[in-house]
Design brief:
single chain; about 300 residues; alpha+beta; 3-stranded antiparallel β-sheet
């Protein structure tokens, strides 16, 4: 069986032998082989075929501007269920994520079992490896696809080719990572000193400083008893104060006096007199009488009496 790749006038001929008994396949150069590096490309071709890559795609490895990369993802995640979910995330619904990655990197990507086979140019293979490893580290592939789309648009502008694209690329933060809470009480570290701390004073040193060391035992006992009595007296006074607190009456709030509206004490006496006079002169149900007529009638009565 001969593998022949034609590109222009260049022809590569490599012999391949398949041993069905051993289940192995070997490649070797022939007398017609012109490129010595073709044997390495033939080896990569066997690797791709062993990982279920279609023959039409695998033969492209024999071209000069093509390379392949086989990424092992089986040992990146320990939990099997988590591994299956992340691998499915790389493929996407109906292979849409994988198709977008192929269009942006111009590579052929095949996810099979515990490996990811990629075939294409060198720059595209770098991007594919980065996306695959990030996906296995629980980074969604859509973030890397977005950056690749932005880079593709920026590469079209000749003015931006020699500039850094960091200002245009998005910075995605990991929101699911829990931040470590800072403690309420922070311990401040002391400054390092080569000298050891001062040795604490012993009981004998304290007695020598106060002069108790030179006292007799009877005097020491007496002094201890006095100290005990003083402590007992202080404890008794504290207990007595606590007991007396229960008998102290609570402070009463001052009673709030309601202010009444001030009544008018001044009485208009003259107005009352006028009302009384009007009441005397006025007869209920009778019309008002003229004073002149009353005086005339009174004078007539007096004259009649005299006569």
């Amino acid at each position: 069986m001969e593998l022949i790749s034609q590109k222009g006038k260049q022809i590569k001929e490599i012999k391949a032998t398949l041993d069905l008994i051993e289940g192995s396949m070997t490649v070797s150069t022939s007398r017609k082989t012109f490129d010595p590096y073709a044997i390495i490309r033939a080896r990569d071709l066997i690797k791709l075929l062993a990982r279920s890559v279609p023959f039409e795609q695998a033969v492209r490895i024999l071209q000069d501007d093509m390379a392949c990369d086989i990424i092992k993802i089986g040992s990146l995640v320990r939990n099997r269920e988590r591994f299956v979910k992340r691998r499915q995330r790389l493929i996407g619904p109906k292979g849409s994520t994988l198709k977008a990655l192929e269009l942006l990197t111009s590579c052929y990507v095949m996810v099979q079992g515990n490996t990811v086979s990629a075939l294409g140019p060198y720059n595209g293979l770098k991007e594919v490896r980065k996306v695959v490893l990030d996906t296995m580290k629980n980074v969604h592939p859509i973030y890397n696809i977005k950056t690749l789309m932005i880079k593709r648009e920026l590469s079209k502008d000749p003015e931006l080719r020699m500039q850094s694209w960091e200002r245009f690329l998005p910075n995605f933060k990991h929101k699911n990572l829990s931040k470590r809470k800072e403690p309420k009480k922070k311990t401040v570290k002391r400054e390092y000193t080569p000298f050891p701390p001062p040795q604490p004073e012993s009981q004998m040193d304290k007695e020598l400083a106060t002069g108790e060391f030179f006292l007799r035992e009877s005097q020491k006992r007496r002094k201890k008893l006095e100290e005990i009595k003083v402590k007992q007296a202080e404890a008794l006074t504290k207990k007595q104060e606590e007991r007396n607190k229960a008998f102290i009456p609570p402070k009463e709030k001052p009673a709030v006096k309601t202010k009444r509206a001030p009544t008018e004490t001044k009485i208009d006496i003259e107005a009352i007199k006028d009302k009384v006079k009007k009441a005397k002169n006025k007869k209920l149900g009778a019309p008002p009488v003229n004073r002149a007529a009353e005086t005339a009638s009174a004078s007539v009565k007096k004259k009649t009496k005299r006569s």
